[in-house]
Amino acid sequence: MIDPNFRLIVVKADNIPIAFMLFIVGFFLWLSLRQAFANDERIAKGLPPAEAVETKDKLMVWPHLVYTEFICLILLTVVLIVWSILIQAPIEEPANPTNSPNPSKAPWYFLGLQEMLVYFDPWMAGVVLPGLIIVGLMAIPYIDTNPKGNGYYTFAERKWEVGIFLFGFIILWILLVVAGTFLRGPNWNFFGPYQYWDIHKVEPLVNIHLSEIFWVRLLHRALPSFWLVRELPGILIALFYVAALPPILARTLLKRFYDRLGFARYSVFVFLLLMMMSLPIKMYLRWAFNFKYLVNLSEFFFNI
Q1: Of 91, 103, 140, 255, which has the fewest CB atoms closer than 10 Å, so is most exposed?
Q2: What's this model's pTM, rounded to 2 decimal places?
Q3: Phi and psi for 303 in degrees, rounded to 5?
Q4: Contact present, 192 and 203 (Cβ < 8 Å)
Q5: Other beta carbons less than 10 A from residue 254's beta carbon
Q6: Residue 34 and residue 26: Cα distance in Å, rounded?
Q7: For residue range 146-181, what is the model confidence (pLDDT) as tens digits?
Q8: Distance of alpha carbon 180 from alpha carbon 116, whole angstroms
């Protein structure tokens, strides 16, 4: 916070909730994992989880839970009133189409989606991936029927499940929000944490499609005029990723999931997992090689 550029960004009224969110997420992540590891040690010694001992006596919703929720409501109301008094609301002048803000950012909870637009086509980043997130959250109770961990914290009994959740929530959501809030400046350029947001910064990016890498750079030939031939390498890789990779994983890395879930639930699980992994893969390729689209069908406004 001693750096003036970094402090200028963090203490903006819009960004203060994000800074609080980082602290709250970090605290509760630490607290839940601490309780999980403590329970794992108890279970290894043949003892019941701590929650089983604490909740041995039955507690009624009224008055115990309702009182707790009511006190939390009062405290949060006080916090919001003090917040509204001390910090000026970031309300700007009426929208002016001739003077758009730069950078023009979505609300903080949509910044992850806005960041995904850097790496995917709008239909993919704005429709397909958010839709799969919602479908995936709805499908979790039907895919994960493992009773272990119900009602108590544990890590050892659900390593994969906890790991996948943390990867999706922390890496693919929280970090994207943080990047969009603190690291994306004017013209949606990327700035380091202590870098001045220079509105005149020009960062030329020569992005390249897979078809150009394959035909031009590897084969030293011009791009074929017929779209199917031109994009055939990317189409084959995409088909391998969604159709051939799941059965390979079922026989190797994810075999125990296939045995436990069965064909139907495993297919849904691995499809959602591969779609989730496509984001960090695409981000790495863009950052490392300026790679843009695996399949570039501009004739049909369809890019992957």
Answers
A1: 91
A2: 0.80
A3: -135, 145
A4: no
A5: 19
A6: 12
A7: 788 888 889 988 888 888 888 888 888 888 888 888
A8: 10
